[in-house]
Amino acid sequence: MIRRSTLTGVAVVVTLLGAPAVAETLNLPRQKIELVAPPFVHPHEQVATGGPKIYEVRLVAEEKQMVIDNDGTTLQAMTFNGTIPAPAIVIHEGDYLEVTLASLPTNTMPHNIDFHSATGGQGGGDLTLISPGEQAVFRFKATRTGVFLYHCIPGGPMIPWHIASGMSGVVMVLPRDGLKDAKGKPLHYDRVYYIGEQDMYVPRDDKGKFKTYTSHADAFADTLDTMHKLVPSHVVFNGRVDALTGKNALVANVGENVLFIHSQADRDSRIHIVGGHGDYVWETGKFSNPPQTDGETWLVRGGSATAVLYRFLQPGIYPYVNHNMTEALELGAFAHVRVEGKWDNNLMSQIQAPAPMAEPVAVALEAAAHATPDKSAVDAARVEPTPAPRGPAQATPDKSTADAARVEPTPAPRGPAPVAVTRAAARDARSAHTSAPAAPKRQAVRQHAHRPPQQPQEEPSTWKTWLQKLGILAANTNTTPTSAAR
Ligand SMILES: [Cu+2]
After folding, report:
1. Which residue in 162, 247, 249, 481 has the fewest CB atoms around it within 10 Å?
2. Is 1 a catalytic site residue?
3. Adjacent-strand bridge partners of 234
C-alpha cells in the first residue's frame, strides 16, 4: 500500500510538471476497434480510405494465475484483456488512438500503459495510472509508422515485474497508403499474426521444483530474486509453452503473403522460420525505413517489435523459432506454421530415401573410423561422407559408391530430427527436473541422434515417431518432402 500511494504521488507530480493539456475536441469520425486475442489481429484496412479517425479501444488490466507449460507450472500473471501478449492494435499514421484503461476491482496493484507509439508523458504512463476498480481515458496521435510496443510501467521494481508477468502488446501504425518495398512498390499481406515472446521467471524450491503461490503479493519477493539472476525459467510465445504448436499452429496456404509481427518487451530474440525466409524484413519494425530482403534470422531488440512479410512457397510444417535453440526447445520459444498447398519438386526433392549404404562405403567408413590417427587416413575419411557439397570433382568414379554416399545428405532426417530429439529430451528433463537421472538420459538420446545410422531398419521409424509426435511429419505424410517427391 505504501508503494502504491508513493507511485501514485510520483505520477501526480510528473503530471503537474509536464502539464498535459485538457483534450481538445477533435472534429473527426470515431470508430471502435473490437480487439481480438493474439496471435490473431482485428480486421483492418491495409490502405486507409478517407482521412484520419479517432479509434477507440478498451484495455482491461487483469491479475490472474496462468498455466505456462505442459507440466502445469503456474505464473502469477498480469495481463491486458486476459491474454499474454496483450492484443495487437492496428491504425494508420495520422489517426488518433483513444484508450480506455480499466482495472478489475479484484486486482491488487496499480497499472498503467506506456505506448511506444505515443509522444510525451511516459507514453501515456502518467495519464493512465489507475488503482483497482478505476478507469482512465487518454488519447494520442500516431505520428510515426511501424510496430511499437505498449506495456505497463507502474514504477520501480513493479515495472520489470509487470512486464515479465505478461503486460505488453503492440500498436501497428501503417502508412496511410500501406506497406511498400524499398522501391515504393505496394506490398499486401493475406494474413497477419502477432507473436509476443516473453521471458518468465518462476521461482524454484530447494529441490528445484517450480513454486506455486496463492497471490501476487506472495510471489513478489521470490520472483524478483529470480529475475535478478536474469536466467528465465521459461521463454515462450503467446503466454505458454506450445501455445502455437500442433493443433494451435499458425496456418497459411502456399502462395499467401503472411505478415509476422513479433515483439519482445524485455530481452533480445532472434527469429528464424525453419525452411522459410523473410521476403521483407523491417527488423526495427519501423515502416519509414526500407525493408531488408531475403531475411534468414532477424533480431528482435528487447523493447521493440519486428514486422516480416513472407510468401510461403512450399507446404509443410515450418518451425518458427527463437534461434537460440536452448530458448526455443528447452524453454519454449517455439511455434509451428502449418502450410497447405502443392509441393514444388523444383525447389526441393528427395533423390533417395534413407536406406542402408552400399557395402564398400560402409566398410570404408568403418575402417576410417577405427584407423590409427594417421594423417592420410583422417583426410580420406573427411572426403568420403560429404560428397554432395564438394561437387563432382571430389566424387569417387565408382558409381555404386557415389550412389550410396548420397544417402548421407538426404535432407529430411537431418533437418527437423535434432529439433525433435532435443524437444523430447526437454520434456523428459522437465518432467524430472528435480531428480539427477534426467541428465544421463538426455545425453543418451543425443548420442543416439548423432551416431551414423548403423541400424537403418530401426532408425527411420524412430525418427518418424519423433517427427510425428512433434507434428513435423503428419500421420498422412502428403505434405512432407519424402512423399511429395515421389
Ligand atoms: Cu501493471
Report:
1. 247
2. no
3. 200
Residue 71 among the catalytic residues: no
Is 325 an active-site residue? no
Q: Which of 162, 216, 234, 262 is catalytic?
A: 162
Q: How far is the CA of 124 from the centre of ligand 1 (A)?
A: 13
Residue 379: the pLDDT is 61
CA 239 to centroid of ligand 1, rounded, Å:
16
Look at residues 151, 179, 207 and tell me which one is the last residue of a structural domain: 179
Q: What element of type H or E holds 174?
A: strand 168-174
Calculate what percentage of the chain has a pLDDT beyond 70.
72
Whether residues 224 and 116 share a domain: the answer is: no
Identify the bridge partners of residue 195 per DSSP, sorted by sequence position: 262
Given the residues 92, 111, 216, 262, select the one marked as catalytic: 111
Respond yes or no: is residue 158 known to be catalytic.
Answer: no
- Phi-psi domain of 387 (left: phi exceeds 0; alpha: psi -120 through 50; beta: other): alpha
Q: Which of 167, 172, 200, 357 is catalytic?
A: 167
CA of 151 to the centre of ligand 1 (A): 8
* Distance between CA atoms of residues 329 and 334, nearest Å: 7
Q: Number of folded domains in the chain?
A: 4
Q: Where residue 258 falls among pLDDT bands split at 50, 70, 90?
A: very high
Q: What is the pLDDT of residue 359?
A: 87
Domain of residue 398: give its range.
Answer: 359-405
Same domain assignment for residues 397 and 422: no
pTM higher than the cut 0.90: no
Clarify whether 151 is annotated catalytic: yes
Q: Which of 71, 190, 225, 296 is catalytic?
A: 296
Q: What is the pLDDT of residues 71-112, one digit of tens each?
A: 999 999 999 999 999 999 999 999 999 999 999 999 999 999
Grid cell at residue 394:
571430389
228 noted as active-site residue: no
Q: Which is the catalytic residue, given 66, 78, 109, 152?
A: 152
Q: Which helix (H) or strand (E) holds 159?
A: helix 158-164
- The chain-wide mean pLDDT, for the chain, equals 81
By mean pLDDT, which of 1-15, 148-162, 337-351 is the weakest? 1-15
**Residue 358 banded pLDDT, cuts 50, 70, 90:** confident
66 among known catalytic residues: no
Catalytic residue among 114, 266, 279, 283: 114
Q: Which residues contact 256 (CB under 8 A, 6 or more apart)?
A: 190, 191, 311, 312
Q: What single-letter amino acid sits at 449? A: A
Kindly state whether residues 372 and 427 are assigned to the same domain: no
What pLDDT was estimated at residue 115? Answer: 97
At 236, which CATH number?
A: 2.60.40.420
**Has 272 been annotated as catalytic?**
yes
| C-alpha pair distances (Å), 354 with each of 170, 382, 407, 414, 482 | 45, 21, 6, 11, 10
Active site residue 111: yes
